[in-house]
Structures are given as C-alpha cells and as structure tokens.
Amino acid sequence: MNEGAEPTIKGLFVNSHIKAFQRERGPEGVAELARRTGLSLRYATTDDVPVSQEIAILESVVELTSSVPLPDEERQEEAGRLHLRNFATTTMWSLLEQLIGRNLKFLFMQSSWIGAWVFTGITFSSEDLGGNSVRINMSHSVYPRRHFKGFFEQWMHELGVEGVVEVSELVPGHHTYTIKWH
C-alpha cells in the first residue's frame, strides 16, 4: 500500500453490513442508509473499500436503529459490536471457526494473520500477557479507537466468555487493546 493511502477492507465484509441491515429494514432502509452516507452501497466481494466508508455505514446503521441518540464513544462501541455480529455471518468467520475453534487466546494471538486477510494498510500484532490476557496492537487505523473495543467485547460475548477490553491510543491511528477474560 502506498504511504498515505487510506486503509481498505474487502467488499465482502462491507456487504455483510448492508445485507444485515436490509434483512432488518428492507430495501427502503438501505435506500435511507445510502442517502444518509452519500454512498452507492454497491460493492463487489473483492473490491478494496476505503475503511472510512465502512465506518460511515456502521455508525449510520447504529444511528438508524438506536431508539435514542448515543454519545460518540458509545456509538463507536456499538458500531464495533455490529461489525463483529455481521462479520460472524461471513465465510471468513466460518473458516476461522473451523481453523481456530473456540480457543480465545489462540484466536486473539492470530490477529496479524486475520487482519492481513481482511484489511490492507492496517497492521495488527498480538502479545501474550500470560493467563487469560492478550494485548492487540493496531497500527495505521482510521477506526475510532473505541470501535474495536466493542468488536472484541462482542467476540467474547459470541463465545460465551466474560471479560473486559481496555483501550488506549498511543498516537493517532495506533491503538492498543488489552483484553482480559475469565
């Protein structure tokens, strides 16, 4: 990826968000989403979609489906949770379940491999902190820092695990997620 180029995500994953919203709100809902975001919402599976478009779609869906306006950080976390729930409907999720299973530590330790399959321009790395604790570092991110806090919390929830995610931003675009579970 060229220096300064915007990170991208494959159309397959962006389409999972649009399809989930269409199941919930129908074609009229998708038309409203397109109006709200100013995007065509038509992506081929292998398209490299700017992550900023995915963020706009996810946060707009959260706004359209929430019964009350949410503060920015809460909206960001909800968008991250929605991101994971929609990701769980993709073939990539099915593949991960078959390859990795339900071993949370092993799963989180594969963040660089998983991230490389999904994104261009965003780098993930994992550190084993011992016991039921992992740190995931994310570099060159355009996601709001609390987005992946919600994403990782939802992943634990999907696996029936209780835990916490602490997030810090070292410098803009470089986020650290410390994940602990029991």
Summed up, what is this model?
The chain has seven helices and seven strands. By secondary structure, the protein is α+β, with helices and mostly antiparallel strands. A hairpin with a 4-residue loop joins strand 4 (123-128) and strand 5 (133-139).
SS-derived structural category:
alpha+beta
* Number of helices, counting only DSSP H or I runs of 4 residues or more: 7
Which spans have pLDDT < 50 for at least 5 consecutive residues? Answer: none
Tell me, rounded to a whole number, the average pLDDT.
Answer: 93
Distance between the termini: 38 Å
Query: What is the 3D form?
Result: globular
Cα-based radius of gyration, to the nearest Å? 16 Å
Strand order of the largest sheet: 4-5-7-6
Beta percentage is: 15-25%
Helix content: 40-55%
Description:
By secondary structure, this protein is α+β, with helices and mostly antiparallel strands. The chain contains seven helices and seven strands, in the order βαβαααααβββαββ. Strands 4-5-7-6 form a four-stranded antiparallel β-sheet. Strands 2-1-3 form a three-stranded antiparallel β-sheet. The longest helix is centred in the first third of the chain and has 27 residues, at 11-37. The protein is globular.
Secondary-structure blueprint of this entry?
Elements: E1 8-10, H1 11-37, E2 48-50, H2 51-65, H3 72-87, H4 91-100, H5 104-109, H6 111-118, E3 119-120, E4 123-128, E5 133-139, H7 147-158, E6 163-171, E7 174-181
Antiparallel strand pairs: 1-2, 1-3, 4-5, 5-7, 6-7
Helix pairs in contact: 1-2, 1-3, 2-3, 3-7
